[in-house]
Amino acid sequence: MRRSQEFYSHPCLQSHPICQQNLRGCRPTLEHRPQIIFIIFGLLHLIIGILILFCSRDVVEYKMRYDDKCGLSENRTTGSTILEFDNPASSAKFYMYYELHDFYQSHFRFANSYSKSQIRGNYVEDTNDCDPIRSEYTETMVPCGLMSQYFFTDYYQVLNGDFSDEKIAWNHEKGNLYKMPNDEYPESARWMKDSSISRNFPNETMNEHFMVWMRLSPHKTFRKLFAISQNGIPQNAQVQVSCDYPYTNFHGERFVVFMKLGGLGGENLLLGILNIVMCAITIIFTVAFLMMKKQRQRRRRNAIDDEAPVELQEEP
């Protein structure tokens, strides 16, 4: 009891503003100067949006589905066809892609099933990272894992154009991230040397198409670069397609895409529209701040007028 009395009689408790609930209050005052910031951001978004939409107009794309033309089915897992595009001739730089629909390359089991050390040219005994595809007949497969085993092997050849599959991978990938398989692996384990694959995709893990394939796509519909033409695209381009990727591995739709990029890359209509929308939002906030400023100034003038002394006129 005595201890509690000493506690409550402490000088700090008797005089401190916290104990006496006498803290100084703080009332924020609305400031109208941020309207300048909104105007600047609005102009930036407007300029960026218009620039993106303007550059998207330069993008040219020709696209055609081919899996239905190859006649793929459960009974016929491979095939071939010739695609004939209806396009004018162009001398601009064109890129050729293949596009896959409903291929979940980013699935956690698929994306994590490969050995980084193995594709960098090292001999790996512990291939647990490659589950569930690690070996065949007790021999470690090179490269192992789902990502490597499901390497997309459809092949495309432009019959009347000059397209090259060189330099489609990034410069730092060749010789750094990807190297030839280690010589300690037996020939029977190096499945990419099989003639069905090596005739179109030589050099095993050093093949640039393999490097492009190993870049994970976060979407179920994605495109992978296949070839580049520095000399443009011929009129009515013809593409011979070898549908070598088994239908049993993938039932989704397959496309061949020719594209001429714009000044900012591919077509980004959504990004341009989002910037225009952000510009509109900043304009709305700017107008709201201006109206609040006018209203506050009006109230201040009215308050001054109400406080002004009134002169009394003498009666005659």
Automatic annotation (TrEMBL):
Per UniProt, what is the membrane topology?
A: Multi-pass membrane protein
* Family, per entry: Belongs to the CDC50/LEM3 family.
- Name of the protein this chain belongs to: Cell cycle control protein
| Compartmental location | Membrane
Q: Organism, per UniProt?
A: Tritrichomonas foetus
One Pfam family it belongs to: CDC50
Which cellular component terms (GO) are annotated to the entry? endoplasmic reticulum; Golgi apparatus; plasma membrane
Record key words, sorted? Membrane, Transmembrane, Transmembrane helix
Q: Does the UniProt entry include the keyword Heme? A: no
- Annotated membrane-spanning segments are 36-54, 269-291
Q: What is its main location?
A: membrane
Q: Does the keyword 4Fe-4S apply?
A: no
InterPro entries per record? CDC50/LEM3_fam
